[in-house]
Amino acid sequence: MTGLTEEILTHRAPSDHSMGDARALLRKGAFRGFARSEDGQLVFAECKGSAKEPYKVSLDFSSGTEHPTFRCSCPSRQRPCKHALALGLAFVQKGSHFPVKEPPADLVEKSEKLRERKEKKGTTDRKPRQVNHSALVKKASQQLDALRSLETFLVDLATTGLGGLKAKEIQGMIAQANRLADRDLKGVRSQLLLIASLIHQKNEDDEAEEDHEAPSRHSFALPEEVRYARMAGQFFRLWAMLRKGQHLLEGKAEEGDSRGEDDAMIEALLGRAWKLPELKEAGYWITERSLIELAHTHWEDSTLEMVFAEGYLLDLGHGSIYIEQTSLPLLAARRPGAMLRTSRSGILEIREAALYPGQVVNRRIRWSEKDDRTPYERARTPEDLRKLHAFAGTVDGAVKALREQLSNPLLPQEAVFLLEARKFGQSRWEGQTVPVMEDCVGQKLLFRDPPGAFFPTSRNLAHAAGAYGPGSVAVKLWYDPVALGIFGQALALMVGEQHLRLGL
Q: What is the pLDDT of residue 201?
């Protein structure tokens, strides 16, 4: 009777537990009044919940039987909620037995509006983007209120001292993070959650020490001084985002839009999800480029509940290194068929792409996969690799570029460079033997994996350098706030036409 299946419902479920909760509702008989409309487009029922009145739950098949629109009057922020998923399960199992009834008037009205929007979208030609200034002003005002509330909260935290925060304060940080998410300030939210995670790790370690147990595996065995340094650094960066963000939003609350690359960069840091047409219209656009991937990384972040993939792409025209980023919620990434960007072995021929705003060493690059100007990948040639080696720079130049980036607290404390290694050796650091490289002018760089690194590579570099010798090295330079110095984490070694990836 319908193309809806349990597999589709499972794919749409917002969490691992949602389907189990939905089945539990059906088992205990929480629903009453299952029904469907005469044309089969609407399915509806009532479900007893925690509120005094039962929730009104419905499925709307105006977008197709495999793509229902879920509706429920419950206050849950998860969509589809467990009540809507339960109605979907009941319909999959016994939908043919649902009696035909006249749907509620408000449900019919919503369904008609949905169909009208779809028909309009399908028949209307693409028009220039219209800016709703009143909506922008309203959104900016709401975001400004959220940042002001966070500022007051952070001042209270600072007076307590980050080292003395307990479970109550962490819950307060999570509540603030939820409010930031509601106001589309996902960048600020992420920073706040990272701080909460570091504080939580400290508290877990303290409790483990009292109970003579091992520290939590979520702490990645970070030494105490490293954890405190990261907490302080994240707090300082969050405060800078807060101040800059408020200044930007105060202007937007009056005028409805931002101006200039600095404003655009701050918007991106706050969490603005740029659309490609917007980036093109603003001038953040490049055409006709040839790119070669130096390295590719992939990791899970349990704090943000996301999976990330990054590719570092060298522009063979002028040597800039871009970041190609993709991400998925952790739950979505674990579903069959979920895909993140994988490693690239050839040369990417870019016809047109966006370069995100920001005065950073590695700007983010992004393109559309839906038109005839999608990049294509060709085989590498010796000439491509000759160009790659020609762009390898010196240690001093890379360190100066990173220090300039570090002068802005809003920007990352790391960046990827391609360096020329004349020779490799070994050195001692805190009782351990670590690789060291010397460039063409005699400057040296010590290689260390950042504490808690997802993919340690120093040992791989030592083996690769011993087997293949010097060449061009893709290096992530990173700042150590404890040692107060800049170190390298090797990502790849290129020797002649050999390309040795040292991580994933």
A: 65
